[in-house]
């Protein structure tokens, strides 16, 4: 998929956008394109939040660092993700954003998005769905702390599969997984040794094939069942159904 259509693809999971809205998003995402190298910070905790960022390609993460240097990854940021739509109310960022791979992203002034949302109610709805889904994912990651290591890793793999598939970045049952076992540990609250042991267990049970940073899930339903994963919190299908129902009711009302 062309990276200039990645935001429209992401938002189309929530609201069915028309060609004019696609064109507006294409213009918005072609301005102020930035690049960052792998394993570098894009923005650090304490810096001002004068823009939001749309990731076009590559993987990044939101993280905090403890005083002793330990890092906790709070979220993985994938192509099509906006970060952070709600930060215009903050004077400074309360976390850091780092590139895990080479990334391309667009910096967008908050007032541009605010104006777009004011002029285009359907786009506003899509942006709100995006933000609410990000909050829902954060709640699920908190819940993940109550799960076993096997379930934590499996839930992460399933979540990434559905999120990447939503923007056309899976290849059948496979997707690129460019993160290290240390980064998996930082995202799941485990030690790297525990992550390695868990990956071996998942391989031995035939649930995953992980080779050369490509994850192959032979049977996604089997993995979901094994780790008790439900994609409901991602709100992709539910949001689209809600949008269709709302539009249908509006059309009926207008025709009446």
Automatic annotation (TrEMBL):
InterPro entries for this protein: cNMP-bd_dom, cNMP-bd_dom_sf, HTH_CRP, RmlC-like_jellyroll, WH-like_DNA-bd_sf, WH_DNA-bd_sf
The keyword DNA damage is assigned to this record: no
Recorded GO MF terms: DNA binding; kinase activity
Keywords: DNA-binding, Kinase, Transcription, Transcription regulation, Transferase
Keyword DNA-binding: yes
Gene3D superfamilies: Jelly Rolls, Winged helix-like DNA-binding domain superfamily/Winged helix DNA-binding domain
BP term (GO), one: regulation of DNA-templated transcription
Signal sequence extent: none
Residue ranges of every copy of the HTH crp-type domain listed in the record: 147-221
Protein name in UniProt: cAMP-binding domain of CRP or a regulatory subunit of cAMP-dependent protein kinases
Protein's organism: Rhizorhabdus histidinilytica
